[in-house]
Structure formats: structure tokens, C-alpha cells
Design a protein that fits this description.
Layout: H1 3-13, E1 14-15, H2 17-25, E2 30-34, H3 38-43, E3 50-51, E4 70-74, H4 82-92, E5 97-100, H5 103-109
Parallel strand pairs: 1-5, 2-3, 2-4, 4-5
């Protein structure tokens, strides 16, 4: 595999917070999945994300998810691998999945809004998205 193929493959399976925020504001059809425990989701999550802990993902439980929509998983950040476990399970069940790099930690560091409790909320187009890239 050459470098071009490697980086193309990497971008096929990973995304960053700024791209997720921009895609959500642009109405790109995707579902953002918070793969952490419900109590952590309640404390703060990406607006519009659904809570689907990776430990609860089974062949039966994932049937609620649409097969034709990109799924983006995230967790706390680099010290947590719940998003990787969720992405592995979902891709194993045949879904198209990307993992959001840096998780909620990098989302917050990028200055993006956080929803709390059962609030789903959404990003407003007036939000400034700047990841520095």
C-alpha cells in the first residue's frame, strides 16, 4: 500500500470534530453515536447525538439504525476506546462507520456546543468551526 492509499483509507474511517460539526450544520445525512454510558451522555454530549453504549450493541439492538446512513461514533477522547469498540461492532454488522477523532474532549476544545441531559439540540449555522487545519 502506498502513502496515498493509506491516507485515503484512513479518511474513509476517521473524521474530526470540525468536519462532523460542519456536516451536521449542513444537513448531511449522518447519525452521531455517543458510545459511552448513559450517565456520561447526560453530563454532556454532541448536540443531536444519540446515546448507544457499545456494550449494548447486538445484532438485535442495532436493527433500529438505518442501513443507508453514515454512522459516526465518539466517546470521551483519546483515553477512551468506546468509540473504537462501537465502530468495530457496527462495521461488523455491515454499517458504514467513521470514528470521530478526539471524542468529546476535542469537540469541547474546538469550542463546539455541548448538549446536556436528555437535550438533543442542534448546531446553529452561526457557530464558528475552527480546528486549525
Amino acid at each position: 500500500m502506498n502513502a496515498n492509499e493509506f491516507f485515503a483509507l484512513k479518511l474513509e474511517h476517521e473524521t474530526d470534530c470540525a468536519d462532523v460539526a460542519e456536516d451536521l450544520m449542513g444537513g448531511l445525512g449522518m447519525i452521531v453515536i455517543d458510545a459511552r454510558k448513559p450517565e456520561l451522555y447526560e453530563r454532556g454530549h454532541v448536540p443531536g447525538a444519540i446515546n448507544f453504549p457499545h456494550r449494548t450493541m447486538t445484532a438485535e439492538s442495532v436493527q433500529i439504525l438505518p442501513r443507508d446512513t453514515l454512522l459516526v461514533t465518539y466517546c470521551d477522547g483519546i483515553g477512551c476506546n468506546a468509540s473504537t469498540k462501537a465502530a468495530l461492532k457496527l462495521s461488523g454488522f455491515g454499517f458504514r462507520v467513521k470514528e470521530m477523532l478526539g471524542g468529546l474532549d476535542w469537540w469541547i476544545r474546538d469550542g463546539l456546543p455541548v448538549a446536556r441531559g436528555g437535550e438533543t439540540g442542534s448546531l446553529r449555522p452561526a457557530s464558528t468551526i475552527a480546528c486549525g487545519c
